[in-house]
Amino acid sequence: MIHEKINTLFVSSSGGTDEKRSIPPFNRTQHPQSNKLHEKNSINQSPFLVKLQHHLSGRQLLAEEIPFPIEEIQQHIKAGFIEAVSGITYTDNHYRCHRCGNEEQRLLCQYPCYHCQKQCTYCRKCIIMGKITECKKLYRWIGPPPRFRYEHALQWEGTLSPSQAKASEKIVSAIHERSELLVWAVCGAGKTEMLFAGLNEALRLGKRTAIATPRTDVVLELFPRIKQIFPEVPVTALYGGSQDRNTFSPITITTTHQLIRFHEAFDVMIIDEVDAFPYSAEAILQFAAEKARKPNSTLIFLTATPSAEWQKECTNGKRNHIILPARFHRHPLPIPRFIWTGNWRKAFSKNKIPIPIRNWFIHRLEIGKQAFIFFPHIELMEQALPLFQQYDGKIMAVHAEDPDRKEKVQAMRTGEIPILLTTTILERGVTIPNIDVAVVGAEDDTFTESALVQISGRVGRNPKYPTGDIAFFHQGKTKAMVRARNQLLRMNTAAKKQGLIY
User: Fold this and answer.
1) In 3D, which of 243, 240, 288 has the Cα closest to residue 266?
2) Cα 210–Cα 242–Cα 272 angle in degrees, nearest 5
3) N or C: which end of the chain has fewer CB within 10 A?
4) Rounded to an integer, what distance in angstroms lies between the CA atom of residue 112 and that of residue 288?
């Protein structure tokens, strides 16, 4: 194995063989980072601080986000290793934030600035990442990047299904060709395993990779899995409150929000759940993902539910893609049933559970099978919860703002909760081995085609329990309901034609 650890890499602009050198430190004020080893660029003989290189490479940060003295930053600017750019500029009669790309003038506001002692413009769009103003600079590393290379870094003894193997090959090709690829894979297809060979190839080629997802819980789930199969490779997990923010690594697993701090950092950008909120609805996050990529880099999208526009582009041959119509265990996708319930809202308002819904969940209690019951709105769910608890006090409800959300989901995983009422917050990302699902008010606008496909995807994921019941309780069928069911039927048909399911 060729294994060059990042903290011992040395950069030579001349392209010659890198070697360790002892270089006198800067004359500077004492700082926790200040006695670390410096690099020497072979062209202009100006030293740079490795720790600063790793902290700033591929990022654009405010001075207060860089744990080094401003004098040290200025020395690196003078030596040509760092550039400073305006955080907010005013051109053509409008302001623009260069961190998040915001040009909405109502979100670019003025205030009396303490730093410049003037009326100064700041960006409200990305203020959660720290206030950026007209008088502040963003600092970028423009010197030699950290270099790494790993041969045979992957340590995984699993096997891929035929469809997974085909997708894996396409991902590797996209990395070589620096092209864009959509991986359209049904829920439970095993998308993570398909990435392993591509990540390994990127490491072999010295390409820095980001796996970005809209949700923190996916970052927390992916990080130990990727770290386990690449034990010798530094892997960083970035999300709100994470401790790895100052770390350089060949593989970064991050929420899409954290990409706002990056600039031309990644050779390979993988965006998981590209259709999920908030990424699909927030232009700032799409801008951040594009800005975080290097020019001519690889861009890979992963989703089970591409938009109607993307589906059409795939059908017309206008988008490079691969479709995985089967799950890794090679059983057909369960298909939802449509069950008419009449005016279910009126029934709940009278403190009654509609009879079809009552019969459905009582049967689950009787056979001891867990279930998710999805509601379109929190208020309706909370109104209905006491009615369900009359039959079993262990039935609980959860939503995005629930402070006990993680504990309730864990209790569901351990079997302590028999039935969990939920909003669409659990439509993706949570896997229970043997479960049925119901949707109350499936005709509600909350339940888009994408949401209904994802909800259906909770069922039958485990090879020991590949079947299950999906019930769409409704007062009238919608196009979204029909399209969701038809999409699942099409996938089963395609999988059967390709010999991918039993």
Assistant:
1) 288
2) 30
3) N
4) 28
**Cα 207 off chain centre by:** 19
153-187: pLDDT as tens digits: 999 999 999 899 999 999 999 999 999 999 999 99
Q: 431 is written with which tokens?
A: 């896997």
Q: CB within 8 A of 338, min separation 6: which ones?
A: 442, 472, 474, 477, 481, 485
Least Cα distance to 140 among 294, 13, 322, 275 occurs for: 294
Tokens of 349: 């308002």
Quick one: pLDDT band at residue 19, thresholds 50, 70, 90?
Answer: very low
Mean pLDDT of the chain: 89
211: exposed, middle or buried (Cβ count in 10 Å: 0-12, 13-18, 19+)? buried
The answer to whether residue 9 scores a pLDDT higher than 80 is no
State CA 501 to chain mean position distance.
29
Render 364-390 in DSSP notation, one character per residue: HHHHT-EEEEE-S-HHHHHHHHHHHHT
**Cβ neighbours of 13 (radius 10 Å):** 13
Stretch 411-415: mean pLDDT, rounded? 95
* Alpha-carbon distances, residue 131 vs 85, 181, 487 (angstroms): 16, 35, 44
How large a percentage of the chain has pLDDT more than 70? 91
3-class DSSP assignment, residue 347: helix
60-61/137-141 β-pairing: antiparallel
SS (HEC) of 145-166: CCCCCECCCCCCCCCCCHHHHH
